[in-house]
């Protein structure tokens, strides 16, 4: 089924150059609504709900800090990885094609970053039991990830009632950015220490799809460090 393209390629180019690049360089994050449009957004939501219903989402991580016995038994976010070419994930595949186009249009203008590869899509569901995600940095130690891209899928979301706000604490700034996980909203932000963030407790089912774009050089460096470290640890065990 040929998808009608909500945002034509020239729209995407305008969006990338005139809005996304300036915002990322100036503030470090950017979000826009109506990214795929109602029809395709609903197709993506339908496929995510089917993934959730099919039970393949991981058992949510145990909420709260601590480990062993003192850990609480509230199950938090549940996730599944999708390349977008699986049967039943075609609309997710289309979303990734659109975000790939967007990022490649930005590439070369994002300072030193040359972005050529990305992770698979992480489909995430917060069950609405009050679990959230503690404040963290996606990429604190140069693992290669440079841009976090999150597509939200929640219709009629009311943060006052449902919580689930993403709060970004931009490094060195006196303000925080509160972003509601609204249907068909796309959010991009630097994955490194510039953007610590948290997902506040969610009291309704909260769906999102995240994909991380890699800076090629940083990724290659990280892979090399990993190879060296495993090689040295192997040599130390054998010696
Ligand atoms: C489920 N989930 C996450 O929701 C976020 C995250 O920062 N989400 C922000 C958001 O959904 O607005 C994560 O960064 C994350 C990292 C590893 C595994 C699971 C993860
Ligand atoms: Mn995160």
From TrEMBL:
<keyword id="KW-0479">Metal-binding</keyword>
<feature type="domain" description="Fe2OG dioxygenase">
    <location>
        <begin position="111"/>
        <end position="215"/>
    </location>
</feature>
<dbReference type="GO" id="GO:0005737">
    <property type="term" value="C:cytoplasm"/>
</dbReference>
<dbReference type="InterPro" id="IPR005123">
    <property type="entry name" value="Oxoglu/Fe-dep_dioxygenase_dom"/>
</dbReference>
<dbReference type="InterPro" id="IPR044862">
    <property type="entry name" value="Pro_4_hyd_alph_FE2OG_OXY"/>
</dbReference>
<keyword id="KW-0223">Dioxygenase</keyword>
<dbReference type="GO" id="GO:0071456">
    <property type="term" value="P:cellular response to hypoxia"/>
</dbReference>
<keyword id="KW-0847">Vitamin C</keyword>
<dbReference type="InterPro" id="IPR006620">
    <property type="entry name" value="Pro_4_hyd_alph"/>
</dbReference>
<dbReference type="GO" id="GO:0005634">
    <property type="term" value="C:nucleus"/>
</dbReference>
<dbReference type="InterPro" id="IPR051559">
    <property type="entry name" value="HIF_prolyl_hydroxylases"/>
</dbReference>
<keyword id="KW-0539">Nucleus</keyword>
<protein>
    <recommendedName>
        <fullName>hypoxia-inducible factor-proline dioxygenase</fullName>
        <ecNumber>1.14.11.29</ecNumber>
    </recommendedName>
</protein>
<dbReference type="GO" id="GO:0160082">
    <property type="term" value="F:hypoxia-inducible factor-proline dioxygenase activity"/>
</dbReference>
<dbReference type="GO" id="GO:0008198">
    <property type="term" value="F:ferrous iron binding"/>
</dbReference>
<keyword id="KW-0408">Iron</keyword>
<dbReference type="Pfam" id="PF13640">
    <property type="entry name" value="2OG-FeII_Oxy_3"/>
</dbReference>
<dbReference type="GO" id="GO:0031418">
    <property type="term" value="F:L-ascorbic acid binding"/>
</dbReference>
<keyword id="KW-0560">Oxidoreductase</keyword>
């Amino acid at each position: 089924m040929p998808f009608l393209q909500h945002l034509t390629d020239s729209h995407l180019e305008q969006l990338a150059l005139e809005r996304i690049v300036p915002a990322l360089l100036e503030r470090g994050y950017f979000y826009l609504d109506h990214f795929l449009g109602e029809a395709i957004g609903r197709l993506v939501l339908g496929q995510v709900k089917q993934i959730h219903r099919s039970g393949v989402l991981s058992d949510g991580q145990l909420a709260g800090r601590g480990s062993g016995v003192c850990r609480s038994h509230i199950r938090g976010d549940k996730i599944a990885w999708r390349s977008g070419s699986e049967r039943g994930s075609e609309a997710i595949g289309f979303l990734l094609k659109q975000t790939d186009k967007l990022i490649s249009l930005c590439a070369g203008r994002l300072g030193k970053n040359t972005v050529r590869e990305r992770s698979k899509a992480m489909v995430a569901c917060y069950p609405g039991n009050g679990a959230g995600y503690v404040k963290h940095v996606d990429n604190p130690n140069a693992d290669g990830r440079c841009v976090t891209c999150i597509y939200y899928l929640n219709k009629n979301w009311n943060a006052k009632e449902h919580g689930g706000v993403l709060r970004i604490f931009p490094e060195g700034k006196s303000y925080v950015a509160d972003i509601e996980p609204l249907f068909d909203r796309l959010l991009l932000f630097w994955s490194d220490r510039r953007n610590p963030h948290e997902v506040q407790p969610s009291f309704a089912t909260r769906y999102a799809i995240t994909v991380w774009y890699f800076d090629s050089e940083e990724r290659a460096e990280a892979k090399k460090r990993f190879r060296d470290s495993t090689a040295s640890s192997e040599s130390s065990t054998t010696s």
